[in-house]
Design goal:
By secondary structure, the protein is mainly alpha-helical. Helix content is about 75%, strand content about 0%.
Amino acid sequence: MRVYVIRRLLLVIPTVFLSSLIIFFTIRLIPGDVIDLMAQEMRWLTAMDRAAIEHNLGFDVPMLTQYGRWIGVWPQENGSFSGILEGDLGDSLWKKPPVTDTIIDRVPVTFELSLLALIIAQLIALVGVYSALRQDTWGDYIARSFATFCIAIPGFWLATLVIVLPSIWWDWSPPILPIPFTEDPLGNLQQFIIPAIILGMAMSGVTMRMTRTMMLEVLRQDYVRTAWAKGLRERVVVIRHALKNALIPVITLIGLYIPSLIGAQLF
C-alpha cells in the first residue's frame, strides 16, 4: 500500500509538467493575445508602442524561453530566477497586480460558495435514494424529471433569470458586494444561498441519477436480499448495507466536480 501511494504521488510530477506544457503552448498558439486587446482599447497604439509592450511582457523571446521564465528555470532579464517553482505566479498581464494576491482575495468567497453548492447538491441528490426505493412510482417519475431538469437547464441562464426577473417584478436585486461572514453571518448566508442553490442544482442532476442507478444495483445484490429476508427494517437495510456501497462511485463523481467548481469560481 505504501509503495502504491508513493508511486501515485510521484506520477503527479510528470502529469503536472505535461499539463503545464500543453496549456502554456496552447494559449500561446491561439491567434490573438493580450496586446491585441490593448490595441483595441488604445487605438493610438503604434508599432513602436506595440514592440515596447511585447518587450515589457516578455513576448519578444521564443516560447521555450517564455515557458522557462514562467516556471523559473530560465533567468529573467535582470538575471534573477523567479517563477511558479518558487511560488511566484507573476503579475497580471492586463491589470498588473500580482496573480497570487488576486487569487488570495478570491479564495474566501470561492471556498464558501463552492462548499455551500456541494452541500446543497448532495442534499438534493439524496432524493435518488428515495427514487430507487420507490422505483416506477409517481415519486420516482417526479424525481427523475427534476434530475433531467437540473441537467438540461444551463446554470448561467437560470442565474440570469434569478437576477433579472425579481428586479423587474419586485424591484429587488441581490447585493453585489460580498458581505463578510464575520461581520454579518445571516446577511452573508442570505447573499450566498441563491447562487449556491443554482450551482448545486447544476451538479445535483447527474449525482442524483448516479445515486439512483447505484442504489438499484446494490438493492439487487444477494447480501441486501438476505438482510430483507432476516426481517430488518428498511432504514437499517438502506443505511447500514446498501447506501455505503452505493455511494462509492458517487463520491468519485463528486471528486471530479470539486476542481471544476473551484476553478470556475476562482478564475
